[in-house]
Amino acid sequence: MNQTIYPIGIQNFEKIRKDGYLYIDKTALIYQLANTGSYYFLSRPRRFGKSLLLSTLEAYFQGKKELFEGLAMEKLEREWKEHPILHLDLNARHYKDTAALTSILNEYLEKWEALYGTEKQDRRLEERFSYVIENAYLKTGQRVVILIDEYDKPLLQNLHDEETQTQLRNMLKPFYGVLKSMDRYIRFALLTGVTKFGKVSVFSDLNNLMDLSMDNRYVEICGITEKEIHAYLEDEVRGLADTQGTTYEETCLKLKRRYDGYHFTAKSEGIYNPFSLLNTFAKMEFGDYWFETGTPSYLVELLKRTNYDLYDMANTETDADVLNSIDSTSQNPIPVIYQSGYLTIKDYDPRFGIYRLGFPNQEVEEGFVKYLLPFYTSVQAAKTPFEIGRFVREVRAGDYDAFFRRLQSFFADTSYEAIIGRNPERDTELHYRNVLFIVFKLVGLYTQVEYHTSNGRIDLVLQTDRYVYIMEFKLNGTAEEALRQIKEKGYALPFAGDDREVFKIGANFSSETRNIERWLVE
Description:
This protein is α/β, with parallel strands linked by helices. Helix content is about 45%, strand content about 15%. It has 23 helices and 13 strands.
């Protein structure tokens, strides 16, 4: 029987070590981090181990040598000094206004002031913070360690509300700025979060932070590598294979396809999502564990508000400046989608410094695109799997008319208000492209789909074991033109010797009726 206890939802290093939970040893990297610099920032997606990293650093700087027995740190550290720790966690609160932020900062300051002096309790928040740091040093004779978890939670919750975000930013900026002005009293500081807000944001005064988010040296500090799976979880992989009735090699491949694929630098190996991986081994069942613990509603709102082309989102090319920083006034949703873990680095062109982004793995791609469908069509979230299942069955059965009629219903039942924004012609075309992108992305999870779009037209090839569909969609043209283009461009030539039945389908979308007007099949 498997005796491994998995630390699912447990972020306290001391509890993990004392209660016998699985711990994948990251302490060599933590020692290097703590002893080669002082001020750091790390951005990683949610549930990627940031809180456990901070808890491990806290135990280290408290001098709790016994917790590191048998780990790399035990041999690396010689002195085990105890430092005063100021650990601020902004995660478990809803920040609807500045009062909520004031409340939690005040809560932590009062706790620290009880230890290090209350003389400045009537001053501004940042003054009290400065005083606590100075007094902690003077009382203990040791420099202070500052750990801030989810520093960006108040800002991230208010991406949709620029006024509230500005007010919160104006509070956090001087508070975090204390880290620079009190440098002589600080031994170490690490801020973690999902995103990095830049330019006119909380970091503009705090330019002494080293950003680890795209640093090759620390790529593996959060998450689980392939090597670590085989070092710590090899028995679990074999047990999963037996439970699923698959071979060891097939199981490794499925784990990789579903949960691997996070690349935080251009050169790094893929990092596995630790939350999904550990849940899979605990339950001996594959599932969408990470995606189901937090819906990306704020990202969808951002995509809709900025009238973003979803095809571009899934095939984005950008540079490091864009990836590294979210400007709260920007209309580009890509940085926040990337930093939240829904896109990752797929390729890099060093000549121009250009990164190509894409979905990291099957769990994220399937979950995200399924989640999008109800926001762009009238399909209810609960019915999404059924609708996609019907699409796939119709395609596999060669019933292209049923497929197109179902596609028409997606457009017909969508309200005019849901489509039209400031530019009716552009927004209608964008909506048409986005719905087709979502549908064919989802169908492509169960069949083979190649999808391309440019200049008001979409072409795609959809393959099943019995049929090949070559489709050309026109906007405000004719189905005849679309079908003619398939022939003139020779799209069917690669399948000339194929045993499967090949359907050439030309379709036209009318912006006037906001629907697929007609389709022709040969």
